Amino acid sequence: MYNDFELKIPGNTGLQNEVRYHPSDLVLGAVDNRPEKYSASRPALMKDGHGWTNVAPTPDIQALIDGDTNGCVSFSGVNCCQYAVNLLMRDTNVVDYLKSIGMTDVNGLFEANNAIVTVGSGTDPNAGNTVTNVAEWIRKKGLAPMSARPWNRETHKADFYNPLNQAEINAGQPFLKMFAVEHEWVPTQDSVNFGINPLHSREQLKNALQYGVINVSVDGNYARNEDGLVSSTVWANNKRYTFTHRVTIRDYEEGQWWEVHDHYTNQIIKFVWDYPFGNGKLYFVKKKNIPMTPFLQCGKDLYFLSKGGQTVGYHTVDNGDTWKAVFGDYVNATPITKVDVLPANISGKILKLI
């Protein structure tokens, strides 16, 4: 028996459906905007699409003490980014930087502020939002720490939706100093116009899971079959799709089920293999190239190693001008590797910590 627990029904939790792609939208593997042609522009991160459960984030629940935020599009979008960043946290420089900007939680995992994304992207408290609005907010504004706008399950909905001030709008900029966020649709069965058919084949979903967890549309009025798997009453292409909710596909068992992270109550739920998932979206979080790697020796002096392995000499200064001249836009996003012994190819004192 699958889903052998009390299955909480999200119902309509805030998805505003889009019927077609915008001309500027990107489709996974698309060449000339034709999703049936794949390119090798993205590296596969998980062989056969398995392994994302190992980098699962700490749960955030979108329902508040006095009602649902209708922010499923935002919560699921942020959640996809959390899986991606947790994978990047295998790099200790990434861990150190995220800690320095207050974006790790008590479990040492990446944590981002769902409230800022939900409100900033224009979510209607009663009707929700579109996938594109949320994805573009994250791409342009980044992700902010919880400290920028604290909230929890005991927060009232009216307070959750207070308008953002300028500091809150800008709170995602430190994240964007080190990371770039991109997003692409997962190809559908018929064409780039998912108003014709928004559904995905099993192979399209399995292929997409190699690159990231998949943000997808579902019917939030969950119904279970005799095995306990979530099924759907919407099957044929000539029937109306009742997409009301966004969730994240994170794993599968071939021919058996899809494992879904539902952010409404943070339940991990298994769906039937032929469930009609729609309008899949992938989020890609990439670490930006930092011009040089700084090494801090014994807590005293700071040295710089360029990408080519050559040191660059700068005079010691008492203000931050040299630091800014070296790193430019990366001045607040440059992780420092702390070592007792400098790497062998660094010689001489280059720049004292300022």
Characterise this structure.
This protein is of the alpha+beta class and 354 residues long. It has 2 domains: 47-287, Cysteine proteinases (Cathepsin B, Chain A, Alpha-Beta Complex); 292-352, no CATH class. Helix content is 20%, strand content 19%. The protein contains 9 helices and 14 strands. It has helices at residues 72-88, 92-100, 114-120, 131-141, 157-160, 166-169, 173-178, 202-208, 321-327, and strands spanning 63-64, 67-68, 179-185, 214-218, 223-224, 230-231, 245-253, 257-262, 267-272, 278-287, 292-297, 301-306, 337-339, 351-352. The strands form 4 sheets. A 6-stranded antiparallel beta sheet has the order 3-10-4-7-8-9, sandwiched between helices. β8 and β9 form a beta hairpin.
State the name of the first-level CATH class of the largest domain. Answer: Alpha Beta
CATH-scheme architecture of the largest domain: Alpha-Beta Complex
Output mean pLDDT: 80
What do we call the CATH topology of the largest domain?
Cathepsin B, Chain A
Number of separate strands? 14
Give the % helix: 10-25%
Rg, alpha carbons: 22 Å
Q: Tags for this entry?
A:
single chain, 354 residues, alpha+beta, Cathepsin B, Chain A, 2 domains, six-stranded antiparallel β-sheet, four-stranded mixed β-sheet, 14 strands, disordered C terminus
